[in-house]
């Protein structure tokens, strides 16, 4: 065997991308496209609600804000990849990537939901004031509006978690076919 021989094209070519979701506006007619739209809408609501409150526990609500902003941007980019028809230009198994992306987003949002629910449920009421009693000597006060916003953010975080879970399950089914 000499060095001048041409390499086997099968060893140097990449497989065609594997995708079973439609491209363009047809993606919006599928369950996956509808769930991605719901993820964007409810993720944006979580982002707005957390941003509109006084941050009573910065570390916990900072993670919720990071997850909601990051997943909002990533889901928007992911949907635009299909809407613009660019998904078929990527040489990878997009069915697996869809499942993997939604699994990671599910883990992030489930953690954000738990943290936001913890922030919301940690207080007790005294004269329409939510009194937070963390360890240490610091007591922060939340009024009823702030408490309600935190509860709504926790509920929307849970809805987004369910959307990501359903999307992951559907991505798993497409990947296994």
From TrEMBL:
Domain MARVEL: 27-176
Keyword presence, Heme: no
Signal peptide: none
GO cellular component: membrane
Keywords: Membrane, Transmembrane, Transmembrane helix
TM region positions: 31-50, 62-87, 99-119, 151-172
PROSITE patterns: MARVEL
Molecular function via GO: structural constituent of myelin sheath
Compartment annotation: Membrane
Name by which UniProt lists this protein: MARVEL domain-containing protein
One biological process term in Gene Ontology: myelination
Membrane topology note: Multi-pass membrane protein
Location, primary (coarse class): membrane
């Amino acid at each position: 065997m000499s060095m001048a021989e041409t390499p086997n094209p099968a060893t140097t070519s990449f497989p065609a991308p594997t995708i079973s979701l439609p491209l363009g506006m047809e993606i919006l007619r599928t369950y996956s496209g509808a769930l991605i739209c719901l993820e964007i809408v409810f993720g944006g609501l979580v982002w707005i609600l957390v941003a509109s409150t006084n941050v009573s526990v910065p570390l916990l609500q900072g993670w919720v804000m990071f997850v909601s902003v990051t997943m909002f941007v990533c889901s928007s980019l992911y949907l635009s990849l299909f809407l613009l028809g660019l998904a078929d230009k990527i040489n990878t198994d997009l069915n697996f990537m869809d499942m993997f992306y939604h699994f990671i987003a599910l883990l992030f949002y489930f953690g954000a939901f738990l943290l936001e629910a913890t922030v919301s449920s940690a207080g007790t009421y005294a004269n329409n004031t939510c009194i937070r009693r963390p360890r240490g000597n610091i007591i922060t006060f939340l009024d009823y509006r702030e408490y309600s916003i935190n509860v709504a953010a926790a509920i929307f975080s849970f809805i987004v978690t369910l959307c990501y879970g359903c999307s992951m399950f559907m991505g798993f089914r497409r990947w296994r076919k």
